[in-house]
Each structure stands twice: as C-alpha cells, then as structure tokens.
Design a protein that fits this description.
It is built from ten helices and 15 strands. A hairpin with a 4-residue loop joins β2 and β3. The N and C termini lie far apart (about 45 Å). The strands form five sheets. Strands 4-5-6-7 form a four-stranded mixed sheet, sandwiched between helices. A four-stranded mixed sheet has the order 12-11-10-15, with helices on one face. Strands 1-3-2 form a three-stranded antiparallel sheet. The protein folds into two domains: about 160 residues, no CATH class; about 130 residues, no CATH class. By secondary structure, it is an alpha+beta fold. The longest helix has 19 residues.
C-alpha cells in the first residue's frame, strides 16, 4: 500500500506503467478496479483524483451534501464530505501534498479528519496532538487501507499496520468488507435507488444518502473501466421503478445470470445478506427488494407503481 500512496503523494498525475512494479499486484488490481489508476497512452497510467475521492467517500461513508469531488490534486487540502450527522458531523479533508498543505489543514477549529496518503509526515508529536479523539484528527491512508477480496478496504480502526500484512492485504481483520456502503442500511427494504444519469445513482436510507457511480458499486470492467451489464440491469430496474421485464440483455437464462451478478455486486458493496431481488414471477418478472426510480422520482415520498401493470396485478406482485 505504501508504494501506491507514494505515487498519490507525488507531484505527477501520470506515471509510467513500468514505475508500478513496486506496487504489489493485488493492490494494483484493486486500485485499477476502483478507477484510481486508469490506462492513458500506451505505457502510461493516470492517477485519477476524482475516482480516488469517490472511493474514499464510499470507504469512509461520507455524505457529499451536493459538493462535487475534487477533480485535481492541489497543494491545499480538498474537502471530501462529512462523517456523521448534525452536531456529531466531522468534515473530512484529503491532503495529497502534505509538505505544502498539511499545516494549514491542521490549523482548523472545527471537527475535522485530515487524510494524507503516506505516514512520512506524521511525527510522534503530530500523532499525539492529532489522534482519533482530537478536534482535528489525522489519518494516513497507507495505514488504514488494505486489500481484501480484490477490493480496497478501510479497517475499522487504523493502528499501525504490520509491514508483512500490508504486503498481502490481510492484516488484522477489518470489521466489515468494503469498497462500500456497509452500515448504510441493514435490509434492502430500507433503501431507495434513484438513477441520476447514465453513470450515477443516488442511494437513500432514512435521512442518509450518497451518490455513487457504477465504478463505486463494483460494476466497472477492470481493464476498460466501462460499465458492466450488471449496471445495465440496475439502470433498467431504476428506469422502471423496481421492475425488470425486458429481453434486450439476453434470453431468460442470460437475464437470470445478470440479475444474480447485479445482486452479488450490491451485496458486496452494502454487506447485506440475501438477494437484492425477489424470485422471478411470470406475472411480475423480476422485482427489486429495494425501492427504485429515476431522478424525477426522488422528489416523491414513495415511488409510483409501474405504469404498464394494472393495479390488481401490482397488488399481487407486491404481496410476494
């Protein structure tokens, strides 16, 4: 993890593929899967500030509150979002250039968590004065992130990571699996998905919400970073308010496999057991266990019933 975070902390946003040999293969694969590293010209890869920020929002369970993610790495610490709600909220900043921006970030007076890529600037004095309980806390990504199951994972706490564990991505077991929204909800029925545009979805659970791209949900091809067909399933479900009744993605067998794949991806991200979809019914097709709709539906307290079903048929479907 140290080799990857050193690249993030460096001044270059485009690196040679040959320079990535110091990064362990599984860390490299997880970074590419999250979109942090993106193929650029042949032999080069781009370090994506926006995708790193999106991944950190998911890993730390941050609320963006409508604020866009940072598009570039800058000297000043960039705001990522907020942890917690109301009086307990703590703003989270990403300082990728600690040599130039860390001092100002630590000089804040309101609850803040400052993330830095490596621990090289964290002296014993800084660790003592800006520990987890301090008003302005500091955390190094190289110490708090590991790879588990091919995905980036944030440990529940961030103790100093044994070097042997960092190399293989096992370490003291994290509390939850993650690149993730684990803890946002405990049941599919508590969640509501709103399709914002062809690449993003808004996910609500009670008073909490988060915006995710298809990559955040693990629905991007590892090499091309294009949406997978599982994302097409989720888009179709949102477009038709929780129902999937189409053969445009394949025959019945192919559709069943895609539904199961989409469900597995969502289970991995949210840490919820059980399929995200009800069993197939001939009169209803596939129906999601979560509410789903498009961007216009987000303003409604409850989504409308699918327009192509008669009211009696909807009643039979929703009673399943």
């Amino acid at each position: 993890m140290r080799a990857l975070t050193e690249l993030i902390e460096g001044d270059r946003q485009i690196v040679r593929t040959a320079d990535l040999t110091k990064v362990s293969p599984e860390v490299l694969a997880a970074a590419r899967r999250a979109g942090i590293l993106r193929p650029d010209d042949p032999g080069f890869e781009d370090i994506s500030a926006s995708d790193l920020s999106r991944a950190l929002r998911v890993l730390y369970g941050l609320l963006g509150r409508g604020r866009p993610v940072p598009a570039v790495f800058d000297d000043a610490a960039a705001p990522l979002g907020w942890m917690g709600n109301d009086k307990d909220a703590r703003e989270v900043l990403l300082c990728t250039r600690p040599a130039r921006g860390l001092a100002k970030a630590l000089d804040r007076r309101k609850p803040t968590l400052v993330l830095v890529p490596t621990a090289r600037h964290l002296t014993p004095k800084l660790r003592e004065s800006h520990g987890p309980a301090a008003v302005v806390a500091i955390e190094a990504l190289e110490e708090s992130l590991v790879v588990l199951g091919g995905r980036l994972v944030r440990q529940a706490t961030a103790p100093e990571l044994p070097e042997s564990a960092a190399g293989v991505g096992i370490a003291a077991q994290p509390a939850e699996p993650s690149v993730r929204l684990v803890g946002l909800a405990t049941r599919w029925s508590e969640m509501r998905f709103c399709l914002i545009d062809p690449e993003r979805v808004r996910i609500e659970a009670g008073r909490r919400f988060v915006r995710c791209t298809y990559a955040d949900l693990g629905m991007a091809h590892e090499r091309t970073r294009k949406p997978t067909r599982a994302w097409e399933v989720l888009r179709e479900v949102c477009a038709h308010r929780g129902y999937f009744r189409t053969s445009r993605l394949g025959n019945a067998v192919t559709t069943r496999k895609l539904i199961h794949r989409a469900s597995r991806d969502l289970q991995d991200v949210f840490g919820i057991r059980g399929s995200a979809f009800h069993r197939y019914r001939q009169d209803c097709g596939w129906r999601s266990r979560f509410e789903a709709g498009n961007d216009d539906d987000c303003a409604e307290p409850r989504f409308r019933s699918p327009p192509w079903f008669e009211r009696s048929r909807v009643r039979r479907c929703t009673s399943a």
